[in-house]
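User: Second chain of the day. Same drill as before.
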Amino acid sequence: MTEKLYYEDALLREFTGVVVDCREEKGQWVVVLDRTAFYPEGGGQPADHGLLDGINVVDVREKNGEVLHLCDGKVQIGESVSGRIDWSRRFDFMQQHSGEHIVSGILCEKFGCDNVGFHIGHELVTIDFNAELSTADVAFVEKAANQYIWEDHTLRIDWPSPTQLEAMEYRSKKALSGPVRIVSWPGADCCACCGTHVRSSGQVGIVKLISCQRFRDGVRIEMAAGARALQWVNQIAGQNTRVSQLLSAKPGETAAAV
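Assistant: Same format as last time:
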């Protein structure tokens, strides 16, 4: 079993660990350490990337309690190595994941539905809900989620006993067995989750719900949080500025000019 440092401190960027195994598979080296801060892909969140003693970690997976680091080079079994997380990638995922929890918790409570799908893509986050939502509904959730974020609530993480878990109300997409990790944003969400999160809601910065389309028996929402949301807003603002210049119209009057 690998000691999972990312559960002890999600903001840990560098660490040391002892190489337990290193084997070649399909042109890559699979490295197992006694402890790691690298998060493996799971729960809708992509894997961390980074370095082990200067060797690129290009993917991370978990199998039977062991965290497998897929590397483009070899390390020596029994030696201590230094790991460094690609922090910009990790923090981006943490902003998206925490933002999604806050949005989903508020939306599911307000409209009595379930989050039935979640994925952090390269550009946007997609969330699937088994309910029909109007434009006004989405606007309400976006406003409420951002208000919650700006209030800067503190994250809570628990590993309840089976008896405690049975008495709790929490979101989960499937029946769970064994130790269950509960991630709570007090007043917004309580959810079984294996991912990494920011320490307080203020670190999410902002969430922007970009689109809402019919999908299967409900809707699919496209969302961006934190730096991604700022990038999206800047992109749209830049396009609008260009349109206003081409039409010789003020930025706030481009639609009328068209």
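The radius of gyration is 21 Å.

User: Great, on to the next one.
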